[in-house]
Design brief:
34% helix; Alpha-Beta Plaits; four-stranded antiparallel beta sheet; 5 helices; alpha+beta; single chain; two-stranded parallel ribbon
Length: 165
């Protein structure tokens, strides 16, 4: 896929993440010489073309005081997964909620990350999530993290990803 020099500059400026300010796209525009609207328009085009696959927040939970986190996985009937996912994603302690295809030996299709101050808090939140989404009786597994890995945003500035126009 080809992008122009302005898109390459915008993607390079986006790699460290958006600034935590009231108008992050305006701040990104200041770093790249674009207006806020031009930044938004270009990001939308890059997303529509598949150059940007997703756009989200990385939560470095330990830095904000959360010492426990668990990935909860459920085997949700396919007809219900969208409704259940919306219910879970609306909970304030859920930071990620997404669907994945089932794999041989792994029947789970809905994944949800829950963070808390300690393991007991996370267990209470899981119980609340199950009650809220009506998933208590469905097959599920709770996977607590045992170590933290480095988290980073997408890397776009690679010749094999961004060929000059």
């Amino acid at each position: 896929m080809t992008v122009d020099a302005t898109d390459r500059a915008l993607l390079a400026a986006l790699e460290p993440g958006l600034a935590l300010v009231a108008e992050p796209y305006a701040a990104l525009g200041q770093r790249t010489g674009l207006t806020e609207q031009a930044v938004i328009d270009r990001l939308q085009r890059l997303y529509a073309r598949g150059i940007i696959k997703r756009f989200g927040v990385i939560v470095r939970h330990r830095e904000v005081g959360y010492r426990a986190n668990a990935m909860v996985v459920w085997d949700i009937p396919d007809a219900d997964v969208a409704t259940v996912a919306q219910s879970l994603a609306a909970l304030p302690f859920v930071t990620l909620c997404y669907r994945r295809p089932r794999r041989p030996g792994w029947p789970y299709n809905l994944f949800c990350m829950i963070h808390g101050e300690d393991r007991e808090t996370v267990c209470r939140q899981i119980a609340r999530a199950n009650a809220s989404a009506g998933t208590t009786a469905l097959p599920q597994t709770v996977l607590f993290s045992t170590r933290a890995f480095k988290q980073r945003g997408a890397r776009y500035w690679a010749p094999e990803v961004l060929e000059p126009a």
